[in-house]
Amino acid sequence: MTNSAIHFDPSVLAKYGRLALVARGLVEGFLSGAHKSPYKGYSVEFAEHRQYYPGDEIRHIDWRAYGKTDRYFIKEFEEETNLRAWLLVDASGSMAYRGAHASKFEYARYLAASLSYLMLHQRDAVGLVTHDTRLRQMIKPRANAKHLLRLLQTLEQTEPCGETSLAPLWHDLAPQFKRRGLIVILSDCFDQIGPLVRALRHFRHRRHEVLLFHILAPEEMEFPYAKWTQFRNLEVAGQKLLVDPQRLRKEYLKNFQAFCSELRDQARAMQVDYHLLRTDEPVDRALGAYLTKRQHHT
Amino acid sequence: MSVGLLNTIMLLGLAGLAIPPIIHLLNRRRFQVVDWGAMQFLQISETTRRRLLIEELLLMLLRMGAIGVLVFALASPYVESPALAHLVQANRDVVLIFDGSTSMGLRDATGRSAQSAAQEWAQSFLDELHAGDGVGILIAKQQPQTHLEFTHDLSRARQSIPSLRAPSGGCDWPQAVQAAVKLLEKGQRPQREIILLTDNQRFGWADDASLMRWEMVAAAFRPNGGASAVLPRIRVVNCDPARPADPPNWSLAPLHASRAVASTGQTMTFRTALELHGQKEFGRPHRIRLEIDGLPATDLQAPTAAKMEKGQVPLTFTHRFATPGSHLVSVIVEPDPPAELRPPDYALKDWLPGDNRQDFAVEIVPALPVLLVDGDNRPAPKTRGTDFLRDALAPARDRTPVITARVVSVRDFTSQLLTGDLGKEAGSKPRVVVFCNVPRLTKEQQEAVAQFLADGGGVLVTLGDRVEAEAYNAELYRAGLGWLPARLEEATGDEREPASAVRPLPSSFFHPALDLFRESVAGGLGEARFPRVWKLAPPDRESAATVVALFTNNDSFLVEKPYRAGRVLLCAAPLNNAWHTNLTELPAFAPLAHELVYYLAGTRAAEHNLQPGQPLRYPLPHEGSTEGLKLQRPGEQPYPVVFDPGAQPDSHRAHKQAHAAGTSVVLEGARDAGVYQMCNAEGRVDYFVVQPDHRESDLTPCSDDDRARVAKLVPMEYLSTNDATKGALARTQERQEVWWWCLFAVIALLCGEVWMTRRLVRGR
Question: Which residues on A lie below 8 Å from B52 (Cβ)?
């Protein structure tokens, strides 16, 4: 089955190009296997029947059940637990890094598309913010099916560039998300750790649930270079650094791991769901993380 | 303590120190480019940057250090320290040089020779050496010979010592020491020693000629002055310390013949002398034997009582050879009777039997071919100027002339006449060409004469009224570069005034060809009158030409010049009756013509009596093949002569040399003194004699001054066989090789480099 191949390997996904198709395949593939997955039991349309009581709206009576049982039952739907979710996709230059696999931004884009599809499939309202240092696009949350197309078009048209300075922008965004909701951040978080944590705290302060997908390339985590290498900054044009990676590896990994640990610890401390995603891992791990969070939310 | 290097040339490898920085720079130039997002984690602190820089520098120094120390190790460093001698037993390279000269055969009262003592000392010395020591053995002769190539197989060295040949000939010690230094270059030990096993004879060690040779090699033995980085320690062991200062010894002076070439039936006179050392009075020798071609011919009559002059008693004898070809004349003196004939209290007159023989190779021809070139170009003249010389050399009435003379006019003189046979019989190519009053020679004729000389021919030029001086000077003398011995100035004197004629000066006749005419006798050469002669310019100092006879007015009469392999004699007067000379009327005329011609013919014959090391040239008779050619060296069996480079053992390697007169077989380096016999397939034997150095019979020992004089030029220590070999060995163990220390250092540096690289790369 082709779909099973698609949703497990982000590199293969990239070949299909059209984000909507990919996202649908990814999510449906994920859901079709739900009876086997640890996330089984979730539904997006129908919740339960209950006995009719006077005052209930007549349009909610399940006439088919009445025909079979000769009693009135009211259908209860999920709409009552609908969620407002914001997808914050980092489109800064550093997200363009491409190692042996898909770039971090491509990975974030597939993930955002998949989450959008999944959320809208569950009748949750989904909004999208793409940004680098500056805000690029901001689409307010909607729950209708046409909204997905707009989200996906926006994601498809977005290319990573510019510098990363996440914290100020997130501070600016926090007041704009007026209703409590779920904020899903897809970023490599390459910024100063202090301001970054303060910005996350700002989201939490406004009682938003925050799901942080920390997307990193394996090369960034392992620094496997051996030959002399000139590193060209993806965010600042003209900034180059010629180093012997073997000599710098230890120092680099120390800095990198310290950053990741600090971010993870701080996130957990403020009850932000932190998930480290490697671009060589399947996207469905992130979908699982989302559904777990969704369950907690309801 | 001092430090030195054995292979300084290896220090060129220090250029390898540049390899690590070059690789570092090349790596920096050949980098990969990566577009990178996580730049913030590449920013390192100044402290870390400094630490990385220091580590990088340290790593590079480690790598450079490893290369540097490795190169140093390859240069074979050594340390000289007496303290080290107690700690480590070091290996050493030794070259033993045996004195191969005749004097080593001198036997003491017990009958033991110095060579036997040297062999015994060498055996015990080899027993003291350790595994890993290197040994080479040389024989010091007039040309040093390698007896054993440099080896670490000590048992092979021990086995080779008894096979040393009996001592003979002379000895060139400085050359032998130089050869030993060269042999030591094959070894790698810092302790290098040359041990000279000699009999303390002054001749060959500290005589004037030897001192001069020591001086020439002394520069190589000065510290930092020689090609070798390590100066070998030279020890001289006197193998006959008990030898008296002047032991009794009889010897023979070198044998000389009146002519090197003669005709069959001609009487040849041979001269030698009995030389007596260590005894004041002449006692009649037991026997003097004459051998011809190695076979006993007769016993020579020894003087019953003779007065010695300067220790010599002259001995002259004659012999007439009946057959043409190469002949060997050997004289052997036996001063003492055989042991069984000696009375009980007999005192030996001769302790050194090795110098009691002298050999001489002579060439006997059926008739000596001589070409007379006359300057008279008239067609068929009734008389010619050369008629006198022709009649003197080959009288018309003589049915068996000793010389075959042919006269041609200069117009008919071609190169074919010099390379073809003169007579009807084969093998009568001209040995001598006489130019009589020739005006000038064409260019082709000049070249033919030059080639004739190059092939060992002899040329006699006599001058007269036809001679064109300008042509002679420009084309034949060529400012000393041509074959004419002297420049012609002008014809002087008046033929009508015999009173003012010049005469040859017998007191100036020291030339072998003029031996007969040295005494003024009636009808002798001294009575010849020359009213008119050519005045010859004295030869330049740089010129090889020499005046061999003068006129009474001290002008040159005869001038000789060796040219290539031949000889040229220039006579300033005509050898006929021109210019009213009375020479042709004198009884001396015919002998003079014969002596000059035989002397010039002997040029080629001199190649049969060689100096040690001189190449042996054997002219192939009648362009004959080399099949079946065998050479017998002194004291050896005959072995075939081969010409291919990969010569098999038990053969003599030679090469062919072609020239206008034919082809010669050339064998390089006839070093052993003695008789060499070349035998062709037809059984014809040609003799070659490598002459021994008769001064070897002078057994005068070195004085302390002599030894000190040589040691001053080339540092050396003097020992004797009375000194213990162990003691000699112990004193040489101060110099230690330290290359293996360097190797440890290299290994340590490499380990350090690996550890540091892993530490840096793997992140500890």
Answer: 247-248
Measured between beta carbons, the chain A residues lying within 8 angstroms of B56 are: 244, 247
Closest residue in chain B to residue A235, using alpha carbons only: B37
Q: What is the pLDDT of residue B675?
A: 92
Give the burial class of B633: count Cβ atoms within 10 A of its Cβ; 0-12 exposed, 13-18 middle, 19 or more buried.
Answer: buried
B693: tokens are: 């150095």
Q: Which residues are within 8 A (CB) of B203 and not within 5 positions of it... i.e. 6 or more apart?
A: B103, B210, B695, B696, B698, B700
Report CB contact under 8 Å: A243, B32. Answer: no
Task: Name chain B contacts of A222, Cβ cutoff 8 Å.
Answer: none
DSSP summary character for residue A245: H
Chain B residues whose CB is inside 8 A of the A235 CB are 37, 39
pTM of structure: 0.59
> What pLDDT is attached to residue A163?
75
CB within 8 Å: B27 and A253? no
What is the helix (H) or strand (E) element at residue B181, kind and residue range? helix B173-184
Number of A to B CB contacts under 8 A, please give it.
88
CA distance B590 to B42: 113
Distance CA A197, CA A262 (A): 9
A249 at B interface, C-beta within 8 A? yes
State whether residue B32 sits within 8 Å of chain A by CB: yes
Nearest one of B438, B432, B379 to B406, comparing CA atoms: B432
How many Å is the maximal CA-CA distance in chain A? 81
- For B16, the token pair is 């390898």
Got the DSSP string for B511-559?
A: SGGGGGGSS--TTSGGG--BSSEEEEPPPPSSSS-EEEEEBTTS-EEEE
Distance CA B479, CA B548 (A): 20
Note the Cα A181 to chain centre separation in Å: 14
- Other CB atoms closer than 10 Å to residue B641's CB: what's the count? 21
Paired tokens of B529: 């009158």
Q: Which of A102, A113, A103 is nearest to A11 (CA)?
A: A102
What's chain B's length in residues?
Answer: 764
pLDDT tens, B663-698?
Answer: 888 888 777 788 999 998 888 899 999 888 778 888
Q: Which one of B25, B34, B55, B57 would you mutate to disrupt binding with A, by most A Cβ within 10 Å of its Cβ?
A: B34
Q: Which residues fall within 8 angstroms of residue B552, CB to CB, at 6 or more apart?
A: B502, B503, B504, B505
Going by their DSSP bridges, the two strands A73-77 and A46-51 should be labelled as: antiparallel
- By DSSP bridging, strand B458-462 and strand B488-492 are unpaired
The minimum CA-CA distance between B19 and chain A, rounded to whole Å, is: 18
Rg (CA), chain B: 36
The answer, for A239 touching chain B at a CB cutoff of 8 Å, is: yes
Look at residues B118, B148, B176 and name the one whose alpha carbon lies nearest to residue B613. B176
Q: Which residue has the higher pLDDT, B688 or B31?
A: B688
Closest CA to A109 of A93, A135, A128: A128
CA closest to B759 among chain A residues = A247
Mutation to test the A interface, candidates B39, B53, B762, B764, most A Cβ within 10 Å: B39
CB contact under 8 A, B32 and A253: no
* Mean pLDDT, residues B321-334 taken together: 93
Partner B contacted by A261 (CB < 8 A): no
Distance from CA of B74 to the nearest CA of A (A): 33
Note the helical H segments in B412-567: 415-419, 443-454, 469-471
> Are residues A86 and A181 in contact, defined by beta-carbon separation less than 8 angstroms?
yes
Cβ contact, residue pair A190, B760, below 8 Å: no
DSSP category for residue B717: E
Tokens of B630: 């065998």
Q: Which residue of A has its CA nearest to B24?
A: A228
Residues 6+ positions from B10 with CB-CB distance below 8 Å: B71, B74, B75, B76
Q: Which of B199 and A162 is assigned the larger pLDDT?
A: B199
Quote the CA–CA distance of A91 and A61 in Å, as a whole number: 48
